[in-house]
Amino acid sequence: MPIEKALVVEDEKLTREFISAALKKLKIEVYTADTIEKGQKLLKKHPFDLLLADLHLPDGLGLELLTTFKESHPDGISVIMTGHGSTESAVEAMRLGAFHYLQKPFSIDALEVILDKAKERLKLQRERNFYEQELNQAPRLVAHGQKMEQLIQEIEQVAKTDATVFIHGETGTGKEVVAKMIHAQSQRKGLPFIKTNCAAIPETLLESEFFGHEKGAFTGALQKRIGRFEMANKGTLLLDEVTEMPLSLQAKLLRALEEREFERVGGNTTVHVDVRILSTSNRDPKKAIEQGRFREDLFYRLHVIPLFLPPLRERKEEILPLAHLFLDNFSQGRLKLSKEAEQSLLGYRWPGNVRELKNIIERASVLAKSDIVSPALLFPHPAVDLDILEDLLELQESSDND
How far is CA 179 from the centre of its chain? Predict the structure, then answer.
């Protein structure tokens, strides 16, 4: 995560210019001030990623800036600098939210080391904030039938434990929503919820993505990187579409799951973590094992408590409540479904499940020209019934054989 804008508050001109020049070489936009008062004004005007403040300034202690910076820039990184360091002032700086404490004079190399660490911390903080925000906005499962009511009861029961959970279901059934519900109702609520899509990360980067790497571990590893396991420490790690993970990484993942420890790529220091593991798959895991795509020992490590989300076509009682909920959200209560539209929704097979339903309702809410949603607005192209299509194909094959 790059540092784009920095504020340097330093009363010594040469030191201020030295730091500014070093930051500008790193393509960081720099603002400067020589007093607390001027620094406070700049903090109120601009969104800074980084604050570098001298401890002793003409109008007081630079520690005063830390409180303002933390309030207005909660994701920012602050560093206190001083030529008159003491243990007491260092402790107070850390208590007020300082990321680091630099003893003057310091070299450009020392500053760059701190900046590398600051960028990693900034990335981690912003990712955590993103996932926490996403989690807080996560929809709840709609339950209007026995299957879903039973599933919600299981989620509530499982959430109270630290058990490993395997969530299985077709694409679009709401597996990630279930994972978020488990975390939100657990004792780890408020702690990191980190998602890793095992199908979306290139195989060459997977190990680094999971476990991190040390600086110089491979070409392009310009600084130490914390992996997803460390990001999720004390919280929950979601392994999304875990059956798509390459076999080369599955053995290393198995060891990390068993021991809750690993080494970063290029490192030899063992990292210990306290992480709850949730995983999802839209593929039948037992078939993946039979095909040699998924390790059986890893499956049993992850499959401690299985939760299955049935496809939407098997819980038709959920279709209309979900459709009305989505429509109210997207149109702010402005639109209603016609009776014919409701029947068309009930008659469709929903191969894309809840996600497809949500997308269709969103499209209708955008394109609606009146306050009533018609079937034509939901399905502008006639939907093909898959059962009928299969029957036609079978008849065609029989005809060809004859």
Answer: 12
Q: Quote the tokens at residue 312.
A: 């939407």
Domains (ranges, CATH) in the chain?
5-121 (3.40.50.2300), 138-309 (3.40.50.300), 313-386 (1.10.8.60)
Element (H, E) at 2: none
Q: What is the DSSP letter of 240?
A: E
Contact by Cβ (8 Å): 224, 263: no
Q: Which of helix, strand or coil describes residue 171?
A: coil
Residue recorded with tokens 């925000």: 133
Q: CA torsion sign, 368 to 374 to 380 to 384?
A: positive
Rounded to 10 degrees, the C-alpha dihedral 286/287/293/299 comes to: -10
Confidence (pTM):
0.63
Q: What does the alpha-carbon distance between residue 293 and residue 304 come to, in Å, rounded to a whole number? A: 20
Tokens of 134: 């996403």
Element (H, E) at 230: helix 228-231
CA distance 299 to 294: 7
The type of residue at 339 is K
197 three-state secondary structure = strand
- pLDDT truncated to tens, each residue of the chain (402 aa)? 568 889 999 999 998 999 999 889 888 899 999 999 999 999 888 888 889 998 888 988 888 888 888 777 777 888 888 776 666 666 677 777 777 878 888 888 888 888 888 777 777 766 666 555 555 555 467 777 788 889 999 999 999 999 999 999 999 999 999 999 999 899 998 888 999 888 888 777 888 888 988 887 777 777 788 889 999 999 999 999 999 988 888 988 898 898 888 888 888 889 999 999 999 999 889 999 999 999 999 999 999 999 999 999 998 999 999 999 899 989 988 899 999 999 999 999 999 999 999 999 999 999 999 999 999 999 986 544 444 444 544 555 555 555
Residues sharing a CB contact under 8 Å with residue 387, sequence separation 6 or more, in sequence order: 349
